[in-house]
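One chain given next:
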Amino acid sequence: MKAKMKQIFEIGSVVVEIRLRRTRTAITAVLLALAILFALEIPEVSATTCPPLTQGYWKNHPSAWKVSSLTLGTKTYTKTQLLSILGMSSKSDASLILADQLIAALLNIANGTDGSAVSATISDANTSPRDGNDS
């Protein structure tokens, strides 16, 4: 009888030991993942910073615009004119592709997106010839 109880006890100990090892492994993995997260420098997102939205979003959601006009280059365009530009086919016209991207970038900044990373690019886009009259 004792041999059977000992055998059953040993089997029970092995099962418990395996479960404890799995638990320790899981806890170790979680702690390692947390350590990695804290070691990485994850930038904090301010509550006032909005993610950038696409030109398609701005084209289809004019009620979300926080401005009624934008200046592209040296010319100021009304919301109606900007929507017209966004609605034009830009497949064969690089200046319209640039204008669409510039409009979206400026609307994103007006909406609260941090534009510091792209301010030089926006400045360059605003000085690019757009109307074909630059000679």
About this structure: Residues 55-127 form one domain. The chain has a mean pLDDT of 75. The chain is about 60% helix and 5% strand.
